[in-house]
Amino acid sequence: MNNIEILAPVGSAEALKAAVLSGADAVYFGMGNFNARRNAQNFSTDAEIKDAIEYCHSRGVRVHITLNTLIKDAELKDAIECVRKICTFGADAIIVQDLGLAKVIKSVCPDIEMHASTQMSVGTLQGLYILKELGFSRAVLPRELSFEEIKYLCKHSPIDLEMFIHGALCMCVSGQCLMSAVLGSRSGNRGLCAQPCRLPFKVQKGTGHDLSLKDLSLIEHIPELAEMGVCSFKIEGRMKRPEYVSAVVTACKKSMQGKYDCFTEKDLSDLFSRSGFTDGYYKNRIGREMFGFREKENVQSATKELLSRYASVYDKEQGRFNIKFTFQGKIGEKANLTANCNGLSVETESEMLCEAPINRPISEDRIKDALSKCGGTQFTAESVKILGDVDYSLPVSALNSMRRTVLDALENKLLGKKERILYPAPIPTNIESENYREFYCRFDNVEQIPDNIYADMIFVPLGTDDNVVNTNNYGVELPHGMFGNQEKVEGLLTKSSAQYCLCHTLDAVAIAKKCNKKVIASPSMNIFNSLSMDVAKSLGIDKVIVSNECTLDKFEDISSSVPIGLTVYGRIPLMLTRNCPIRNGKTCAECKRESEITDRMGIKFPVKCYMGYSEILNSRPLYMADRMGEIPACDIMFFNFTTESRQDVESIVSAYENEEKSIGEFTRGLLYRGVE
Fold it and tell me: How many helices (DSSP H) and strands (DSSP E) are in the chain?
């Protein structure tokens, strides 16, 4: 397991020390406002960031910087400057969600590693190949994958794979949650998730916290995951205390050594858990046992004694590097000290000459004792070899000075900072809009579609009777969630005569392109800025419906190289989940693939199940019929029909044709208020 990486979260300087001195191989932390934990302390100044990177590198620890949020056009200039600083400061990798920012990084500094955040929602082999095409060298896998699914990806992946091994487990697939954004304008895709899912949400016969899962813990499975080929084990917790970081790093090290036990697991549970831990996705045991929330006992279990025990793990520097010293002295000459460590070699001379002893010469034991005192540094003296006869006198202070000199020189060499060449940032391209609005409608099923509906494109679920989709204005929607069923999806799409596919993720885009279909990117693709549009075009995406987090005014800022559109009607999908919350209370047969979940205010949110996944929809539909004059120039207006009957659809279409006010409850979504 020599090449296996324990990747620790760092939300503060104290957490950085805890991670490194507890034995982490790499750390990750945020910079500025472009990381998914903006409320963590992080590192606020350039000097703090440079110091943190140098502190890590001098101890052989890699540094990954998270820039894993969606970027607005108005923020691109600052984001580009952020990338330049990270590359100049010498960080090892940047973790990315935004497609446009990925283009910036590969243009500005091709040398730096780029890792695909789990926020990119890529969990298929086809999607991993797209990431490689975009310049990513590593992907963080979704937490929802099973043992067999991970094993398959490890065997065939064209890039390295990293996975979360311990920490918070969201109900929603990362990157596909809009609940915090829609309910309170605090976006998870922008680093400010308010975690509304941890509040009481109820399904019939459920637990009362039916959107809250236990924390993930796969630490005991590290050896078999390493054997599969996972290269990095990531700990969640940039908002957690340093003792937590130390404890989880320690537990991971124990697991790699085959020493992980129930006592260590109890320590982790006492430090932080939600009704304990789960490995349900990994074991493919999805259901009620995975649910849990932060109970009073969980809060009180982190005792002072437990915190002190793990604080003591990182209270002083631990030797990470073994040094072989070679020392030689001779009367009338300066003494020489050579230090070999980690493939590096440095040497120094004493400032004074070795003298003939007045009483007795310095002993070999005193030389070895002085040179071996590396405490308080990242070095340990493995051996001290003394050449020649020790028939001279030399003060111990001279030996100490020589030792400090070579240790400082080794530390500087370990930093190994190389100068990176930085290039200009890309400039977005733009096409003139046709100024003709096409109407695209997406339906849950064909029974919803009125006979006389007018639409330029109608999307129906993949697998719909081919006699329906065998017309010019019909396309198919690929599944939003792909969990081990991509071969089935590809098979169905190959047989379909539909020419267009509505795609929610890069996984779907890859399959659609493989099957020679034209691609329409849905809002769930999280395309948010002008440079993302260029990436979409480079991937062969024909048209883009922008993110539902994009406001009307920000939409006008976007320069697009492909036709673009906005969602103007429909229930916004708030969550994509593999573990259906309804199953926490009743069976699939009882639910019949359509139910609802209720929040603490009594508001009901529809839950719909599809091909192995569920979607939680907003309680009210987005409605803009009476505001059509405020919609900026765009190529496509997108209607998302989910819970509506055929009669409902007819009424809604008529309302939009006549720009009528709604007669029912509705929302303007995020088109005006946007997200932080």
Answer: 22, 28
Q: Are residues 561 and 643 in the same domain?
A: yes
- The strand order across the sheet containing 201-202 reads 201-202, 594-599, 604-609, 614-617, 573-577
Any idea what DSSP says for residue 623? E
Do residue 142 and residue 238 come from a single domain? yes
Please count the structural domains in the chain: 3
558 lies in some domain: yes
In terms of domains, do 51 and 154 share one? Answer: yes
Q: How buried is residue 365: exposed, middle or buried, by Cβ count under 10 Å (0-12/13-18/19+)?
A: exposed
Q: Name which of 129, 127, 98, 10 is nearest 530 in CA terms.
A: 98
Assign residue 550 a region (left: φ > 0; alpha: ψ between -120 and 50; beta: otherwise).
beta
> Which residue intervals of 503-582 are DSSP H helices?
506-514, 530-538, 552-557
Using DSSP's 3-state secondary structure scheme, residue 345 falls into strand
Rounded to a whole number, what is the distance in angstroms from the first to the last CA of the chain?
Answer: 42
Residues contacting 609, CB < 8 A, separation 6+ = 580, 582, 588, 591, 593, 594, 615
**Mean pLDDT, the chain, whole residue set:** 93
**pLDDT given for residue 433 in this prediction:** 65
Q: How far is CA 542 from the centre of its chain?
A: 27
Q: Which residue has the tokens 């979260």?
A: 9
Of 415, 448, 481, the residue that ends a domain is 415
User: Please, are residues 573 and 96 in contact by the beta-carbon 8 Å criterion?
Assistant: no
Core vs surface per residue 251-281: b (16+ CB within 10 A) or e = bbbbbbeeebeeebbebbbbbbbbbebbbbb
Cβ atoms within 10 A of the Cβ of 557, count?
15
**What is the arithmetic mean of pLDDT over 301-315?**
91
Q: 118 near 69, Cβ under 8 Å?
A: no
Read off the pLDDT of residues 342-376 as tens digits, 9 standing for 90 and up: 899 999 999 999 999 988 999 999 999 999 999 88
- Strand ranges (E), 284-329: 321-328
* Residue after which a domain boundary falls, among 382, 415, 448: 415
Pinpoint the alpha helices (H) of 202-261.
Answer: 222-228, 242-256
Instruction: Quick: pLDDT tens for 170-188.
Output: 999 999 999 999 999 999 9
- The pTM of this model reads 0.94
DSSP states of 157-200: -SSEEEEEEEE---SSPTT---HHHHHHS--GGGT----GGGS-
Tens-place pLDDT, residues 414-449: 887 778 999 999 998 887 766 678 999 999 999 999
| 590 falls within a domain | no
Quick one: pLDDT at residue 376?
A: 86
Pull the structure tokens for residue 673: 């208020």
Give the distance between the most distant pair of CA atoms in the chain. Answer: 111
pLDDT 10s digits, 279-288: 999 999 998 9
Angle at 621 (CA atoms; ends 616, 624), nearest 5 degrees = 145
Q: How far is CA 136 from CA 129, 159, 233, 571, in A?
A: 9, 8, 18, 34
CATH number of the domain within which 553 lies = 3.20.20.70
Q: What is the DSSP letter of 293?
A: -
Domain presence at residue 581: no
In a domain? residue 518: yes
d(CA 575, CA 637): 22
- Owning domain of residue 219: 5-169+215-261
Give me the pLDDT at residue 299, please. Answer: 66
